[in-house]
Amino acid sequence: MAKTLLLASAMALAICYSFTKANALTASGWTKAHATFYGGSDASGTMGGACGYGNLYSTGYGTRTAALSTALFNDGASCGQCYKILCDYQSDSKWCIKGASVTITATNFCPPNFALPNNNGGWCNPPLQHFDMAQPAWEKIGIYKGGIVPVLFQRVPCKKHGGVRFTVNGRDYFELVMISNVAGAGSIQSVSIKGSKTSWMAMSRNWGANWQSNAYLNGQSLSFKITTTDGVSKEFDSVVPSSWGFGQTFSSSLQF
Question: Could you tell me the pTM of the whole model?
Fold first, then answer.
């Protein structure tokens, strides 16, 4: 009897585990695009950005980042996604480093420049798929003088150090939470928030990686329920203590 119960429990755990992992992101196929660079040799000019991650050094993204063109940025829904980028040596053997690749995280938006043609300066104009990469990342795959190189890219699962982080900004009745350092899919589909005295409430994307709530949650510990764009959901129970204040960042031990 005991063996039967043990076997049933093991099977249930296996089914549960496979269910939570069933939709996890796997690498996509290769797609053609182009890549330029910005931000200087130390990537200091890439700080901030349209995803709202702020100082990319302190938030864990470092210098392997990129701004995405309109076709890839998806109005901020692609923030946090990771891409493996390979310089297309067959198309440009002069400026590509043969066999070199780099994995970057999407942290910014590369706006279109309709005053210039798509093939001469308007690199981020729709419908082009383009990466304006942090210079140190770009120089992993291309030779500086080239300026722009053809690339092949694929979306890949993100690998991050430590857990998901929550930065609480805003004011009373307006919590603006920036969610960063997300592994797996990297990008977020939906977020719910719960105070220690409330039920779950859906948050809405304000901009980039910033999600907002219009509840009064001061003095309450905060929990979050996050679903990433591959359909995987995780609950971060009381990750923000009741003593929180606006402008503070809290790290969880949980990761996708």
Answer: 0.88
